[in-house]
Write a structure and sequence with these properties.
mainly alpha; 4 helices; 0% strand; 192 residues
Amino acid sequence: MNQLPGSIYPGEFTNSDELMFRSQHSGMSRAEWNTQRHRDRALDAHQAKVLVDYDKPMSGGTAWDRLQSFVALRDKTQAQLDALQGQKARLQGAVEAPAAVKAKRTGLLQLLAKKLIGGDEMDTSEAVTVDADIAAATVRADAAQLAVMELDKQIADKVLQVNRLAERQRGFVQDAMLEHVKGTYGDKYQAP
């Protein structure tokens, strides 16, 4: 470590050290690099936790049994992903609802303005109802937005799981086919 002479800050680096570090680490400072390294490690740990059950070998006596277990797990995981995506789509409507109610309020205000211009009396009871609808829709939208954020995390985890199963599928199919061929042709079959 090349500490600057007479520096009162331990660990202070010379400009050449910092430039060397940045050139070796995509232009990041030491602090940025450490932050990114911790983020990457946390992501790796999270992915390992999410995928722990999807990296285990399938139980079952024969390759065909393992393939059937694998297909059941794959289909179940895909159905869970589809359900999460369906929930998100339903909640997205609640997130966007206040805009529709606000548009209704704008139309009502324009109508009231025309009445005022025409010298008519203004009835604000409907406007109060619309304002209450906007407040309720905004609360529902805020809650739905939080739910969508949580669903996004769950969907990302399910996508990881579905992708891991897709990576493993070929091995299960090959094992089952090889087992079937060997069962049919016996020792005469030589695997490539």
